[in-house]
Every structure is written in C-alpha cells, then in structure tokens.
Amino acid sequence: MSDQNNVQNSVNIVIHGQQYPISANGDEAYIREVAAYVDDRMSKLKDKAPSNTLVRLAVLAALNITDELFTLRKDNKSLIKRLEEKTTRMSNNLEEALVDNS
Fold first, then answer.
1. 13 and which of 35, 51, 82, 98 could share a cystine (Cβ 3.0–4.6 Å)?
2. What are the distances in angstroms from CA 61 to CA 12, 41, 44, 95?
3. Alpha-carbon separation of residue 68 from 4, 33, 61, 72, 74 (angstroms)
C-alpha cells in the first residue's frame, strides 16, 4: 500500500469472501477502500465467468487493475506533455509581448 500516513495499521479485510489480515502504511479507511475495489473487480469477473477459480479471478483482476494503472499513467504523461508545451508557448508569447512593449 502507499505511504499515505506512514502509520502502520493492521486491518482485517474481506476480498471475495476470504478474510485477509493486512498490515500496511496508511489510513484504515483507505486500506478498506482499496480492498473493496479489488473485491468489486473480482465479483464483476465472477459474474461474467462463474466457473473461474479464486486464483484465476485474482489474476484476472490484477491484470485488469494493472491495465487501468498503465492507461492512467500514459494519459497522465500525455497531459503533462501538453501542459508543458502550452506553458512554453505562453512563456514565449509573454516574452515576445514584453520585448515588443519595451
């Protein structure tokens, strides 16, 4: 889990009917929110393919969540690049305007 508060918490969570004791940095509510997200993803996969085993559901959920992460990282990089380009253009325009007014 992330370094949300740098406070070690022990939390019992339930994912797909299985209880897991988790010791992690961060707020208990955050840990539960993350667990609920994983549980929801596994439940949705189970609804689509009820014959999948728990391990298969966990792997498929991990792949889906990782795909989301990678997509968001790519989108974030694209947004940062666009922001940097616009900032550079604005800075150049401002410099030109200041030179023209001198």
1. 35
2. 20, 6, 9, 50
3. 21, 17, 11, 6, 10
pLDDT tens for residues 45-59?
999 999 999 999 999
Dist CA 56 CA 82 (whole Å): 39
CB burial of 65-84 (b: ≥16 within 10 Å; e: otherwise) equals eeeeeeeeeeeeeeeeeeee
Q: Which residues, in sequence order, are CB contacts of 16 under 8 Å at separation 6+?
A: 39, 42, 43, 46, 54, 57, 58
Task: Please give the model's pTM, rounded to 2 decimal places.
Answer: 0.75
Phi-psi region of 57 (alpha: psi -120 to 50; beta: other; left: phi over 0): alpha
